[in-house]
Amino acid sequence: MSWNSTPSAFLVLANGRVFEGKSFGASGETLGEVVFTTGMTGYLETLTDPSYNGQIVTQTFPLIGNYGVIPEDFESAAVQPKGYIAREWCEYPSNFRSQGNIDAFLKERGIVGLCGVDTRELTRVIRDNGVMGGVITANPENVDMKKLTAFRITDAVANVSIKEVRRETPPEPKYRVALWDFGVKENIVRNLFSRGCEVIQIPYGYTAEQIRAFEPDGVMLSNGPGDPAENTGIIAELRKVADAKVPIFGICLGHQLLALSMGGATSKLKYGHRGANQPARDVKTGRVSITTQNHGYMVDSESLGAKGTQIGELRYINANDGTCEGIDYLSIPAFTVQFHPEAAAGPRDTSFLFDRFLTLMDERSLYKK
Q1: Would you call 121 a catalytic residue per the annotation?
Q2: Which one of 96, 117, 136, 275 is most buried, by most CB atoms within 10 A?
Q3: 90 is catalytic
């Protein structure tokens, strides 16, 4: 499309690099952590994934918006990133389900966008230097560089978790799952519900006692944004849930939080894993699955045997860089994965993990009659 009549806009990075492009979406200025995602499709899921809260997302695929805006594909009700960057957006999408184009959608939701920049070069900068603060602005000379370099995402889970309990019950429920919401994607709820689970979605600030009062057959720990180690209150309560021997399945942030609660450690990746083409290898079987991922932190594999106590076995590793992608716990009925089995990357390579959770609840539930 032509951007000749579109106002100029700029991305200013904390390392001083400036990228000039054109404004799209809402006008204005926005500050966030600049990251990139390699997904060729799934831009709607990206825009509505709570794990992107506080970030400015760069799409490496050059054309975004070609199948329009489809509310049925949203992962949450809100647009989660602080800003959005694309090489080019499609003005006239082609899809029978489309309800408009992405530019109008971002305008309607108040999300500042930037297009027409060299996203390949921007991605190289992030890969070489690591994720960093950035601001999309029409006035790059007015950017407060001190504020920009000091930027970090805080209170991320509190920003995206639900405020009160929600309950979804199938006609003939087989299991009751307490879904601890740290920024859950809707497809996690759908996967549990479709397998006959009554899903009780619980706010992040609930205590172990409040969660156990629901008498769940299992506890699902959701994905979510931000630094896992920041969530000290959740970690303390999660340890109490784990000590009660309730079956647990954790995804993404939930994977990291359970590791921290059991004595493990986490650290920040240089530029994270974000996209729909990340290979995860099962170290027990050797099988490699193509997975969707969205995270900037990892569980340190060495910490699983910290302080002379083996808290869990490394089950999955990232086939690209060898980082921890999954843990089977030894002293509690629990397993977790860093990737998203609900996100259909393969498209069904790892959806069996939900069935594994059901089997674990059958075997170990404290409350199932």
Answers
A1: no
A2: 136
A3: no
Separation of alpha carbons 299 and 239, rounded Å: 16
Tell me whether residue 115 is one of the annotated catalytic residues.
no
Tell me the two tokens of residue 243.
């000590």
Structure tokens at 143: 């950017």
Q: What is the average pLDDT value for the chain, to the nearest integer?
A: 95
Active-site pick, 255, 273, 295, 340:
340
- Note the residue count of the chain: 369
- 185/276: higher pLDDT: 185
Catalytic entry in 252, 255, 295, 325: 252
User: Using one digit for the tens of pLDDT, what is the confidence trace for 282-340?
Assistant: 999 999 999 999 999 999 999 998 655 689 999 999 999 999 999 999 999 999 999 99
pLDDT of 145-177, one tens digit each?
999 999 999 999 999 999 999 999 999 999 999
pTM above 0.90, yes or no: yes
For the stretch 194-230, what's the b/e string if a residue is b when 16 or more beta carbons lie within 10 angstroms of its beta carbon?
Answer: ebebbbbbbbbebebeebbebebbbbbbbbbbbbbeb
Which is the catalytic residue, given 186, 237, 325, 342?
342
- Record the tokens describing residue 204, joined without a space: 């992040």
Half-sphere exposure of 240 (CA within 13 A, CB side): 12
* Dist CA 53 CA 55 (whole Å): 6
Spatial distance between the Cα atoms of 325 and 305, rounded to a whole number of angstroms: 16
Cβ neighbors of 53 (< 8 A, separation 6 or more) are: 80, 81, 153, 156, 159, 160, 183, 225, 226
